[in-house]
Prior knowledge:
0% strand; Amino acid/polyamine transporter I
Amino acid sequence: MNNFKIGTFRATALVASNMIGSGVLLAPALLAPYGYATTIIGWIITTIGALSLALVFSQLANWIPNSGGPYIYVRNVFGNFLGFQMAWGYWISSWCGSISLLIGTLQYISIFYPNFANNQLYSIIFGLGIILLFTYINMKGIKETTSASIIILIIKVIPLLLIAFVGIFFIKNFDIFSFQNIKLSSLNNMSCILLWSFIGLESATIPSDNVNNPERTIPASTITGVLITAAVYIFGTIAIFGILSESELVSSPAPYVDAARKIAGNYGEIFMIVTGIAGLVGSLNGWIMIQGQVPYSAAKEGLFPKIFLKVNKNNVPVGVIISSILMGIVFILSYQESITQHLKLLIDVSVLAMLLPYFYSVVAYIYLSVTQKKQFSLLKKIFFSIIGLTAILYSFIAIISAGQEMVFICFIIFLISVPFYGFVKWNKK
């Protein structure tokens, strides 16, 4: 699509920036009721699952070196219909995830500036302005998009790492390290929140045609991005739970801000507020790019309407604009008084709609591992089997943990895709 090629550093920034969003700032408060020990175990299990998925996508990118990520892998193995459904689900998920980032940002702002965030007109103007800003950056080209991802990642990660590592010296609540009150039964309830924090790990596979030396760059950036994200989450959790008391943490709407205040006073609080808002908003940059890339890849195979094949003078798909318009409409419709409920619903839908493409991608990975087994050494066969088994178990458990209501909503989302697929097929004739 573009002569410019993404290197390892830019690809890693894209992966990590897409993952580190509302999850890191809101997760400590959402997970506080489950306790420190259960939360840490949850993060470790989720990191193992995320790494297994990262390894799966890294290998799939080598076997099927085309842009499109989960969509293209599933289509190559299982055919057009399932491939289309995966593109549909991924596209819908990226919408919901992007809108939840906007609503999460407004919820975060409302903690400090309630008069602004509670004004529906101001909030809608702010949200649409952010969509317009990052749509404009994306339309300038993939170089500009990934450059913005680097800047955004630096803005996000530095304060979070400072809290994580400097905060260790401010820990007062050492009782958290006892690991006495582990509630393994709570892991199911935590699963969507935990996995939400890693959604986007496959980001480098989506524009693989624009990646320099993808056989090496995609695996390196994907795994590095997951490890950076996991380090931010786990060390941040240790610091936050140690600095704030249990009652403070449970009642805190912004644990990182409260921790920053205890470490560096008012200056630390202001610094964390500003960088937090910038980090939340900035995650939209990479997701808006993906919202154009996925339907473009599907349209190349005749599985999405031809309009998504159009590109501007910078070779950026016009699907970026179409997706942004649709996202803006859904954002306006979803921004009601009960924004917390909308935020939780959007996160759950986004995670579950993404989990099915993940699950089918893992099945495709296992299929290719088996059918190409003659090419692999015994050590590689064992490695592929362990990774595939871990990833498919993790994906399956995460899906069934979402609950009947969310599975039903996701079923409806994918059911709606069937007449849309029929329309696209009919339109090709």
